[in-house]
Amino acid sequence: MEKFIFSKDLKTDVSSIDFQHQILIEKINILTxxxxxxxxxxxxxxxxxxxxxxxxxxxxxxxxxNNFNYKQTKAHHTRHIGLTNELDDLIKTLxxxxxxxxxxxxxxxxxxxxxxxxxxxxxxxxxxRENKVP
Length: 134
Ligand SMILES: [Fe+2]
Ligand SMILES: [Fe+2]
Prior knowledge:
- The chain is mainly α.
- The protein has helices spanning 15-36, 40-67, 73-95, 102-121, 125-130.
- One fe (ii) ion binds next to α3 and α4.
């Protein structure tokens, strides 16, 4: 599977957010490596690590939203919850020993993060700039 790259079109220019998005991409790549060597134990460990960091990242964004009264907080939070639930379901599927298609996991994670950054995260840029979030 090809490496997931932090491409220009994913850059928000809010450095704390870009830094965290890069970590998420790196964690998806690490997870993909364990998928490629078909190490199920590592897949689960790396997936849990990815989910843990994803939740922290979502909390960070929402903390900023709350601090500066972002108008779209509720809608963005709802998207975060939906994504978190999908990731938790994926962990459960693996823990229950159900068969999963690893190519599907990779595409799901890549599409999920790319779309979320490009659509929901990009729409808070003016708000972040106005409030000088570093
Ligand atoms: Fe977000
Ligand atoms: Fe984000």
